[in-house]
Amino acid sequence: MTIGNQLHKILEQHANTRIKLRINDNHSTVLSVRSYPDHIRVSLHRLFLTAPASILMDLAAYISGKIRKLTPKVKAFMESAMERLDYSSRVKGSALLTIGTHHNLINLFEEINHRYFDNEVKCRVTWFGRKSRAAGSSATLGLYSHPMKLIKIHRRLDQPFVPEYFISYVIYHEMLHQVCPTYHDALGRHYVHTKEFKRREKQFEYFHEASQWLDDNEHLIFN
Ligand SMILES: [Zn+2]
Fold first, then answer.
1. 88-221: what fold?
2. Among residues 192, 123, 117, 148, which one has the least CA distance to residue 27?
3. How far does the centroid of ligand 1 lie from the alpha carbon of residue 209, in Å?
4. CATH of 3-84, one of 2.80.10, 3.30.70, 3.30.2010, 3.30.980
5. Rounded distance from Cα 215 to ligand 1 centre (Å)
6. Cα distance between residue 179 and residue 56, in whole Å
7. Centroid of ligand 1 to alpha carbon of 61 (angstroms)
8. pTM for the structure as a whole
């Protein structure tokens, strides 16, 4: 019996219903549950293959609808298992845009990595989004994908009026996400920008200037 089959059995026993289980290896679907009249369809990330029984029982209770929210224990398990995932080899180098019209992300990234992190941050960086004003513009300046080990900086920042120190600040913020991981506390609350994160964020040389610049210019970035 494979581990997947074992998992299937445990879930069916605890959920008390027929489950069609698919194990995925996809960073964007950790868990999806769909109910049908005679069965429940579940897609579970392979990280659950190593989950202890107590986690699987909680998971089964959630899948069967006995409880409406994932328990803090399951969330914490997912969180730490996700941290060990590495899908960075799936990121194609040719898909990365590091050189902009006005700003060069790779230079800024390397400078910050050297200065603040002893070159310890292992990730790549790319522009994302549309440069022109377009439907779907968002207020997201930067993103960090942990499993992809990829920082994305919005193209709207690739404009001449955006100072280099501001882009550096956004990159620095996203790099901190690799260094200061998120966590769930015992009550299931999710902490993304932890105390330690905020403390280190202030160590950026132009932290105050960058915050002030954003307050003064936010309307120009996404106008
Ligand atoms: Zn953040």
1. Zincin-like (3.30.2010)
2. 148
3. 18
4. 3.30.2010
5. 17
6. 29
7. 32
8. 0.81
